[in-house]
């Protein structure tokens, strides 16, 4: 539970928090803890040192937890009304801002900024204000506040007005759109997003490319950055955690099952994603199909292990994409599969231990997003794979800035080119593959989550 108001020295704000609740049949609430960079980052400081994570209730279980006063030290969950959250999260954040920054609009999926959008925008403002007010209440004099991502772009500006004494940072985990694409947003909204973020002392981005795009938008639309400083912090994989976790028993059990499903003497191409349009899963499957069509020598000798976990299923466009992914995988299996060989092994229920099992078995990791803030899978698979895998990597992923030299790089729209890259990756001599994987793992773990977090905190307090 939140401790006394006005006591927190370091505050984190994000839509999704480190814990989520579901109500059981008996009415009891069950907590599920999430992992990830921010959890390990913030635990490097801990609630004893006055760290507080402010997040939103995301579902009925969470709302019930807030009402019953159930919670954890160092976490304050906001009881945002379901409709306000849905407008802000589904409507504005994941339909509009996500689509702008990932440049996902294309005919016939084009933005229509109508009255419904205006209504949702008002909820987005309400939602952001709820965060700003909670943070203003909890923060000690001069505290550091670290606001996360596109759900909360207005918080820095709102909080600055309420509490001019605070040090405020905002970090974007997504790409940032180029000016010509960003200004697709109605002028007043584009300006509010930029001015909201520029209420921060520091803005953080995952790569120079996204930081430069933001700067260009600020210069073109609101006369520049003003006093706000920009920093680039390329979040890396958590090597210690992943190495240990991937050698636990449940992972070994799932490896045995997967080995059985894959069959003997076959190579594996592994991908693990949330099922989400920017991940480009359909073109990845089509590239694999092209590989089997144009290079018949790989038939029966390779399996594509594709884990595509459900994401944002309240939105039709994400649901339809999920269906399409499944259809394309089934079509490939129908076209090429034989009695003893299933070309695409797809799983859709989220299972972290099984993901790690696939990582360990990977000969090739396929990471081909059309656009991605970073993509940690690209950093994780070469690190975890038992034999050291090859990496086929989109040049549009943030990770390309750090991993481009040792990956086999693709244009994510080029299906034939991606098929050729898969062939090249499968054909790499074992020594070279292992050498490259070693360098990829080193580059991909250069900035572990705890240092990523503490660097930003130091810079903010600096
Ligand atoms: C991206 C965003 C995160 C978000 C995650 C999962 O990585 O940058 O802020 O938490 O996707 O998406 P979800 O909508 O499930 O929180």
| 3D shape | globular
What share of residues are in beta strands? 15-25%
Spatial separation of the terminal alpha carbons: 30 Å
Strands, count: 15
Low-pLDDT windows of residues: none
Bound molecules: 6-O-phosphono-alpha-D-glucopyranose
Total domain modules: 2
- Largest sheet, spatial ordering of strands: 5-4-1-6-7-8-9
Query: What's the gyration radius in Å?
Result: 22 Å
The biggest sheet amounts to: 7 strands, parallel
- Helical fraction equals 40-55%
Write down the overall mean pLDDT.
Answer: 95
* Individual helix count: 18
| Structural class based on helices, strands and sheet pairing | alpha/beta
Structure commentary:
47% of the residues lie in helices and 18% in strands. It is globular. By secondary structure, the protein is α/β, with parallel strands linked by helices. It folds into two domains: 8-235 and 450-460; 239-445. 6-O-phosphono-alpha-D-glucopyranose (G6P) binds at residues 16, 94, 149, 173-174, 311-312.
